[in-house]
Specification:
Distance between the termini: 29 Å
Number of helices: 2
Largest sheet: 3 strands, antiparallel
Strand order of the largest sheet: 1-2-3
Bound molecules: zinc ion
């Protein structure tokens, strides 16, 4: 049964309006985004790349920074990100 769980079924941003607004980013570039692996990431900084635009440094977000709701567990992130993490 667990294998039938929809990968896109988790709705991040339902815990509070602040997170929803931060993710929707209609008037700005959101720093909190859901990756292709369905893991919620937060950009924590910029990294300088030689001869390129600065790159964003992302970290999985475990708790909502606004209301403190637990959004995903370390195990969730590991299993999701691990499935297609080092695949090329
Ligand atoms: Zn929240």
């Amino acid at each position: 049964m667990a294998a039938d769980a929809p990968t896109s079924g988790i709705e991040f941003g339902t815990c509070c309006a602040e997170l929803k607004d931060a993710m929707s980013g209609e008037e700005f570039e959101p720093l909190i985004t859901v990756g292709e692996d369905s893991v919620l990431y937060m950009s924590v900084g910029l990294i300088d790349l030689e001869d390129e635009e600065p790159g964003m440094v992302d970290h999985p977000l475990f708790f909502c920074p606004f209301c403190g709701t637990k959004l995903q567990s370390v195990e969730d992130v590991r299993s999701k990100a691990g499935e297609n993490g080092v695949d090329d």
